[in-house]
C-alpha cells in the first residue's frame, strides 16, 4: 500500500513521455540509412555486438529531438533548415570517422559529446525559426515547413498560439482541471491508505491488549 502514492506521483510523468513526439531526423529513412553507412565504415567488422551498437547509436540520434525538445515552439522547422541540419550531421560523423580508432568506449564517448552539441544546435535552430515564423511582421518563411512530431509538411508559413509558446486558454483550463482532479484523487487515495492503516493499527493494538490481559 505504501507504494501506491509514489506510483500516482510518477504516473503523470509517464504519460508525458508516452505522448507523441517523433523527430525531424526520424522522418527521413534515407538519412538514417546514410548515418548507418558512416557508422559501419567507422566500426571494425570484428567488433563484438557491432550491429546492436550501430542500431543504438542511430536510435539515440533519431530520438534526440523527440526526447529533449518537447516544447510546442520546437515542433516545426522549415525543410531547408532540416536538410542543412542533416547534411551537417553526416559531415560531423565523417569527421569523427577520420579520428584514430582508440577503442569502442572512447568512440561512444565521442558520439555522446556529438549528440550533446547537436542537441544545443537543434534547439538554437528551432528557436530561430520560431522567432521568424511567430514574429508580428512575418509574411513568408523560406520554403515548406515540416511538423517534426508527425513528419507532415505544413502549408502555413506563419504561426501563432501554441506553436509560438502561447498557451491556449482552453488548453490551460483543461490542464488546471486535470491537475485538480489528480490532486483530489491522490488525496482520496492517501486518506484511504491512512484510514486503513489506522484501523489495522488499532485492531492490532486491541488484540495485543487482550493477549496481555490473559
What is shown here, in short?
The protein is mainly alpha-helical and 214 residues long. The protein has helices at 3-18, 29-42, 50-62, 64-68, 79-98, 104-133, 169-213, and strands spanning 76-78, 145-147, 152-154. It is built from seven helices and three strands; from the N terminus they run ααααβααββα.
Question: Can you describe this structure?
Answer:
The chain has 214 residues and is mainly alpha-helical. 67% of the residues lie in helices and 4% in strands. A three-stranded antiparallel sheet has the order 1-2-3. Strand 2 and strand 3 form a beta hairpin. Helix 2 packs across helix 3. The longest helix is centred in the last third of the chain and has 45 residues. It is flat, with a radius of gyration of 26 Å. The relative contact order is 0.13.
Determine the strand fraction and express it as a percent band: under 5%
Shape: flat
- Name the structural class: mainly alpha
- What's the mean pLDDT score? 78
**Strand line-up in the sheet with most strands:** 1-2-3
Task: Name the features.
single chain; 214 residues; mainly alpha; 3-stranded antiparallel sheet; 67% helix; 4% strand; flat; disordered N terminus
Q: What is the element layout, followed by pairings?
A:
Elements lengths: L2 H16 L10 H14 L7 H13 L1 H5 L7 E3 H20 L5 H30 L11 E3 L4 E3 L14 H45 L1
Antiparallel strand pairs: 1-2, 2-3
Helix pairs in contact: 2-3, 2-5, 5-6
Amino acid at each position: 500500500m505504501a507504494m501506491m502514492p509514489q506510483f500516482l506521483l510518477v504516473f503523470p510523468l509517464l504519460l508525458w513521455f508516452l505522448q507523441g513526439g517523433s523527430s525531424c531526423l526520424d522522418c527521413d529513412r534515407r538519412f538514417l540509412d546514410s548515418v548507418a553507412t558512416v557508422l559501419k565504415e567507422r566500426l571494425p567488422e570484428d567488433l563484438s555486438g557491432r550491429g546492436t551498437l550501430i542500431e543504438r547509436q542511430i536510435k539515440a540520434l533519431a530520438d534526440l529531438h523527440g526526447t529533449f525538445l518537447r516544447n510546442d515552439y520546437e515542433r516545426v522547422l522549415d525543410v531547408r533548415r532540416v536538410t542543412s541540419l542533416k547534411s551537417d550531421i553526416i559531415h560531423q560523423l565523417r569527421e569523427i570517422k577520420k579520428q584514430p580508432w582508440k577503442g569502442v568506449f572512447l568512440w561512444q564517448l565521442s558520439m555522446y559529446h556529438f549528440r550533446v552539441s547537436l542537441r544545443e544546435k537543434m534547439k538554437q535552430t528551432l528557436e530561430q525559426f520560431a522567432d521568424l515564423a511567430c514574429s508580428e511582421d512575418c509574411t513568408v518563411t523560406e520554403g515548406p515547413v515540416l511538423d517534426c512530431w508527425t513528419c507532415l509538411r505544413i502549408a502555413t508559413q506563419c504561426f501563432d498560439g501554441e506553436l509560438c509558446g502561447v498557451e491556449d486558454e482552453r488548453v490551460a483550463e483543461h490542464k488546471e482541471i486535470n491537475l485538480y482532479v489528480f490532486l483530489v484523487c491522490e488525496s482520496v487515495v492517501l486518506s484511504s491508505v491512512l484510514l486503513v492503516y489506522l484501523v489495522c493499527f488499532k485492531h492490532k493494538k486491541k488484540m495485543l491488549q487482550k493477549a496481555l490481559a490473559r
